[in-house]
Amino acid sequence: MANQGNNIKVVCRFRPPNSIEKREGGDICVNFSDDLTTVKVSGAAQTGPEANGFTFDRVFPMATQQKEVFDYGVKDIVADVLDGTTAPFLRTVRQEAERHSR
């Protein structure tokens, strides 16, 4: 099996602004640490858990190519599944509520 005994990886991928967001002048409101493990939200509270940002095993900024995400977080899972190992994969998507309320 490819990597039996893999630990869970928690990653966060950010998509680039879409054409509507660009046209309407949407701002990028996140900053990434140099080691690509922490995300800070611009204008977030300076106290509490948000003050230090949010930490992940890996953060993929807007310019990240699909292959890089696949190689880091998915390739081993696919190999395990093809070898007959059960491998869970969870994907969540969050979009701004404002976009849906217009």
Automatic annotation (TrEMBL):
Keywords, in A-Z order: Coiled coil, Microtubule, Motor protein
One Pfam family, short name: Kinesin
Highest rank taxon of the organism: Eukaryota
Protein name: Kinesin motor domain-containing protein
Signal peptide positions (record): none
GO biological process, one term: microtubule-based movement
GO cellular component, as recorded: microtubule
Domain Kinesin motor: 7-102
Record has Endoplasmic reticulum as a keyword: no
Family designation: Belongs to the TRAFAC class myosin-kinesin ATPase superfamily. Kinesin family.
Keyword Nucleus: no
Example of a GO MF term: ATP binding
Species annotation: Schizophyllum amplum
